[in-house]
From TrEMBL:
This is PadR family transcriptional regulator. Residues 26-97 form the Transcription regulator PadR N-terminal domain. InterPro entries: Tscrpt_reg_PadR_N, WH-like_DNA-bd_sf, WH_DNA-bd_sf. It comes from the Bacteria. It comes from Candidatus Dojkabacteria bacterium.
Length: 121
């Protein structure tokens, strides 16, 4: 029998693999700080995907090295500490997001998958 702990380990691994998709989607919506990226992801997923600020920050730095995002202007944190960098999606990042969506998300709209999931959700 699947335990809650086993499921949480599997689900955590699954969700962490999706961070790049959710981050690029957030930045496609406009330039955002780390906190704004986190809030966007949490809102668009109805709270099902939550990542720590350190995880998002480290990921954004990695994505910047790959040329998918760039750090730009500073965002006023309204008295909650120093100003934060706003990140933006690059042309390469947008191309990556579009190609990923075309290749991997279209499958979720197929009638065959809907039929296969009937009764599971």
């Amino acid at each position: 029998m699947l335990t809650e702990q086993q499921f949480q380990v599997w689900e955590g691994s699954f969700k962490s693999g999706q961070l790049i998709f959710w981050t690029l989607l957030a930045l496609e919506d406009g330039d955002k700080s780390v906190g704004q990226v986190m809030k966007y992801i949490e809102n668009i997923t109805a709270g099902h995907y939550k990542f720590s600020d350190q995880t998002v920050y480290r990921s954004l730095r990695s994505y910047a090295k790959l040329g998918l995002v760039s750090a730009g202007r500073e965002v006023d944190t309204i008295g909650r500490g120093p100003n934060a960098k706003a990140y933006k999606i690059t042309t390469l990042g947008k191309q990556t997001l579009v190609k990923f969506a075309e290749r991997n998300l279209g499958v979720f709209f197929r009638p065959e998958l809907k039929k296969a999931l009937t009764g599971l959700i």
